Q: What sequence folds into this?
């Protein structure tokens, strides 16, 4: 099933430049949210606990973990520090 999805995405990207662009940016946003959720879960704290530590609402933490679109680096850094982590940004060859 994953192979079929990968094939579909690959074909669609080659035919539709707009889809390809949006897919990549959407994937990166999803990845940020997943990384933050995994870090929170590995730290053994709830969204409520993290919201308290970062002085924000639980709904903001949920939004960040589920669709981190246009999130500020300062927000990610604040969450990372609340989880006992440092934020590292790396530029890699495209």
A:
């Amino acid at each position: 099933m994953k192979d079929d999805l990968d094939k579909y995405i690959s074909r669609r990207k080659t035919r539709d430049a707009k889809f390809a662009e949006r897919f990549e940016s959407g994937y990166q946003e999803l990845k940020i949210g997943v990384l933050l959720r995994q870090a929170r879960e590995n730290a053994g704290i709830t969204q409520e606990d993290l919201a308290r530590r970062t002085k924000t609402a639980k709904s903001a933490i949920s939004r960040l973990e589920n669709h981190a679109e246009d999130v500020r680096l300062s927000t990610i850094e604040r969450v990372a520090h609340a989880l006992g982590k440092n934020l590292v940004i790396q530029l890699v060859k495209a």
In short: The mean pLDDT is 87.
